């Protein structure tokens, strides 16, 4: 397993803040404690995704039906060439076939410190087939990760879905990947407007994220750590909103922590303060636990 050289081991969750000018700006106004930035999943061609409304906050959970809007690879490459930030980049990719993923990884390899392979997005445009549903199974998953492993020496995160048979897929891809990402949004779910009867999201269904999904993602981290934790690292992404959640995820086996929905509604200054306080909080808890580093508690839970 190749480790991602990042400290603190905290990144944004893909799709949230995920644009290079945003990383540059946050750094300019004082962002310190984000070890790497994960770029928005990029694919084989420009894709608009669903039209708005694509995000719905029901007071407890966020539901999104973005369906992977992404720019032309040429345009993304221009942005990467011009990137002036110091925050290292982890590049996220989606595709329709192992070849799509491998092409994207080769093309952008030199711009990042590692790759996140998204085979787990539950959202799609009406009429479109769910590409990810097709990819997030053992056979297709192995095909994708094997193809990616063949074209990069950099650390690879395989981001799995909590909606699929993630333990089987994790076991099957463990020899080709450095990390398993746990997980993506859950569902998708549906809410309709009680007066009009129409779905609230244009894409009809939307993946769920935020505080409410954390117990499901924690279970996913736990099960994957039990299954393959000695072979790969684990990236936790699901409902992290305070330092304590990072400690709990670490105890369950995660070593990298991604921050997404909790940033909803925060302005840039609040976002910077959030990241900077989050890691300070982790260090304070570690001190209280008399641990020198977070590495000392990874996998140290009492749930067998
Ligand atoms: C608006 C939005 C867009 C997202 N876009 C992507 C994406 O492009 N690729 C991906 O792998 N995950 C994407 N995700 C999933 C997040 O990276 C993350 O795994 C998920 O939201 C759970 O973390 P959270 O509860 O902290 O938000 C997206 C999530 C949201 C809410």
Poorly predicted runs of 5 or more residues: none
Q: Decide which structural class fits the backbone.
A: alpha/beta
Helicity range: 25-40%
Strand order of the largest sheet: 1-12-11-8-7-6-5-2
The CATH topology is: TIM Barrel
Please summarize the sheet with the most strands.
Answer: 8 strands, parallel
| Number of helical segments with 4 or more residues | 9
Sequence-ordered SSE layout with sheet pairings:
Blueprint: E1 10-12, H1 20-28, E2 37-38, E3 55-57, E4 62-64, H2 73-82, E5 89-93, H3 98-108, E6 114-118, H4 131-135, H5 138-149, E7 156-160, H6 166-173, E8 179-182, E9 186-189, E10 206-209, H7 214-228, E11 233-236, H8 243-252, E12 256-259, H9 268-288
Parallel strand pairs: 1-12, 2-5, 5-6, 6-7, 7-8, 8-11, 11-12
Antiparallel strand pairs: 3-4, 4-10, 9-10
Helix pairs in contact: 3-5, 5-6, 6-7, 8-9
